[in-house]
Structure formats: structure tokens, C-alpha cells
Write a structure and sequence with these properties.
The protein is an all-alpha fold and 109 residues long. The chain has two domains: 42 residues; 48 residues. 76% of the residues lie in helices and 0% in strands. The chain is built from four helices and no strands. The longest helix is centred in the middle third of the chain and has 24 residues. The radius of gyration is 20 Å and the shape is elongated.
Length: 109
């Protein structure tokens, strides 16, 4: 379930919910816990397929990298002129756009 926020370096929230549902089903073997587990697992599979088909998780990553690079430049160059800032922003936006464009020819799986 890529692209999901991690609260720690461990599982994402959706992964944690699925594991909780799995643990509940293992301990109770009830129909309702089985249905909950099936639903959460189905949502996770659907989300992963969506991300792989659209590349949205990678686009989000590239976007964060673009913003991080610009912020890092501003932080390390506090006296940069307006043209320097503009050039750095333009460079990072063009890199972002090229990365997104490259996704169009990347294999889905």
C-alpha cells in the first residue's frame, strides 16, 4: 500500500488496520471479522493497483522532492536574489515535469 503515511518507520495506517483485522479474525474466526478483513484487504489491493496503473504515488513522491529541493535551496541561500530563486524554482519544476513525463513510458508493474 505505497503512498500511505507512515506514523513510524513501520507499517502505514492501512497496513496496521489490515493487520488488526487479521488478528481479530485469527482470534475469533467470526463471519463479521472475516468480512472486515476481506474488505480492508480488498481496499488495500485496489489502492495498490490504482497507484501502479496511474503512477500517482510516484508523482506524489516527485512533487515532495521538488518542494524539498526548493526549500533546501532557500534555506542554504538566504540572501539569494529574485532571479536566482526564480532560476532554482524553474530548474526544479522542469525536473519534476521530466520525471512525470518519464512515467508515461515506464512499465506499469
Amino acid at each position: 500500500m505505497s503512498g500511505s503515511a507512515n506514523t513510524t518507520d513501520g507499517m502505514s495506517n492501512p497496513q496496521l488496520f489490515q493487520q488488526m483485522a487479521f488478528l481479530n479474525w485469527l482470534s475469533t474466526q467470526s463471519d463479521s471479522s472475516r468480512e472486515t478483513l476481506m474488505t480492508l484487504t480488498g481496499i488495500g489491493v485496489a489502492r495498490e493497483l490504482f497507484n501502479r496503473l496511474t503512477g500517482q504515488d510516484r508523482v506524489d513522491y516527485f512533487k515532495k522532492e521538488c518542494i524539498r529541493s526548493i526549500a533546501e535551496f532557500v534555506q542554504t541561500h538566504p540572501r539569494a536574489s529574485e532571479p536566482e530563486l526564480s532560476a532554482e524554482v524553474n530548474k526544479n519544476v522542469l525536473l519534476f515535469a521530466a520525471r512525470v513525463k518519464a512515467l508515461e513510458s515506464a512499465p506499469i508493474f
